[in-house]
Fold this sequence. Notes:
By secondary structure, the protein is an alpha/beta fold. It folds into two domains: 3-31 and 395-541, Glycosyl hydrolase domain, family 39 (Immunoglobulin-like, Sandwich), CATH 2.60.40.1500; 34-360, TIM Barrel (Alpha-Beta Barrel), CATH 3.20.20.80. Helix content is 29%, strand content 26%. The chain is built from 13 helices and 23 strands. The chain has helices at residues 3-6, 51-63, 106-117, 162-180, 182-186, 207-224, 242-253, 279-294, 328-348, 382-391, 408-414, 481-487, 496-506, and strands at 18-32, 39-42, 68-72, 93-95, 101-103, 120-126, 189-192, 229-236, 259-265, 269-271, 274-276, 303-310, 351-357, 375-376, 379-380, 396-402, 421-429, 432-440, 450-457, 467-474, 514-516, 523-529, 534-541. It has a nine-stranded mixed sheet with strand order 21-20-23-18-17-16-1-19-22. Residues 1-12 have low confidence and may be disordered.
Amino acid sequence: MTAALLMGAAVSASADSFPVKISVDAAKTTGPVEPIWRFFGADEPNYATMKDGRSLLTSLGALSPGHVYFRAHNLLTSGDGTPALKWGSTNAYTEDAQGHPVYDWRIIDRIFDTYLARGVKPYVEIGFMPEALSTQPQPYQHTWRPGSGSLRTGWAYPPKDYGKWEELVYQWVKHCVERYGHDEVASWYWQTWNEANLPQYYWGGTRGEFFKLHEVSVRAVRRALPEARVGGPDMAGANDDFMSAFMDHMEKTATPTDFLSFHAKGGPEFVEGHVRMGLATQLRAADHEFAAIAARPAFKDKPIIIGEFDPEGCAACQGPANAYRNGTMYSSYTAASFTRVAELAQRRGVKLEGALSWAFEFEDQRYFAGFRQLASNGIDMPVLNVFRLFSRMKGQHVAALSDHQTPLDAVMTSGVRDDADVGVTAARDGDRLSILVWHYHDDDVAGPDAAVSLALDHLPAAFKKGAVMTRYRIDATHANSFAAYQAMGSPLAPDNAQYDALKAAALLAPDQPAALNINAGETSLNFELPRQGVTLLVITPVN
Length: 543
């Protein structure tokens, strides 16, 4: 990208590109930038302490040290700590021959220590059921694997003794306070179980039994730490009445509720030889729960965390419909979906505090194996770089419009199936302006580039002497380890030189900074953005 191009000189777009006009008004603020993106999670808690898990947690913590959260299943599951797909364990609770509780926090401590050493805090999921407490303990460990097996086994059932369960949770929180300190643990989130409204998967009890489990869990947490931040129910967004029933029960029993949580997933398909994403499905699921919460005076002002916010439901599943995961379709989808869900929350008048990506890594699996993950064998994937772009946006949102951004209602009705969605969001932090632009389409097929003409107005006085623009890109040839892997022939076991090349290809490296002329607080620039590409422009004044 040349300086002349950036200063608004005429640009000859490629023959198959289409024109897009974007305008940004740096003086018109529209509200604070809320870092809803800073939440992540995984089924397999023990991966966090392994080599590639530690490395990825370091990358996540670096996005916003002390403000990134991680949620994991299986923190109370019985076992020796050996991970498997959709499985993990800590053996926190067993019983002696007389039926007395035996607590062992060593594996959980190692997991939480690993988080905290890397600037990541726990979003604590209280579950699953220890074998010694399960009402149906055998078989205990599931036999699930991609494509076959049974998931719901002994770990998924209610406790045979709610008093022992409550004491387990109390002792756990008490131990955390003793180990990490009152103020640290008070900054965590605590919630009970996972998707208890899907009995075929994660919960083998009734709705009423789950509500009781949550009620006694909250009581235990608050008994150990009265200031603890508690909430739930981290249900699957399934267009049912579970959230309303949960709020009814919390209100009736006066159970403390500091935040509300649910999940929202999309629904990709494999059609006519390619992946077609289901962005509309994901947004409608979120809106259904937003509407239920907004309708309740006692809860409408509570912070909301979408405890799993993903293009589809199963990170460990593979298959043709999930082929979007390795490349830039996942990147552009993430940019488009996070921006839209924040817009939905604003429309409903609710406070969206976080949207958690249920994506981490799968230790020692083959390279780019088709899982929903942020890194593969220690190599960052394109989607991780979107979160790096998000982390660079701070301060106040400013007005930004694109003439090719698909309206929210149209996306929710039918997704992005006709014209491409070339959208924009912008922010100003003092005299630093950041502009994120994405080029998304539901169909993973080739399409023309967007030839973007971007006009900046009302830049502050600090820009009088001019500006410097730095551009970051995620597309087929930038910050894209998967494209590099394909170009080298998709080796089963990359050698050292190939591995180093993949690491280098994954880097979110900025373009050479370029000068912008400013005239009466205005400037313009032009660039092309490939289909499924994402770019961030960072503009700062010349000193």
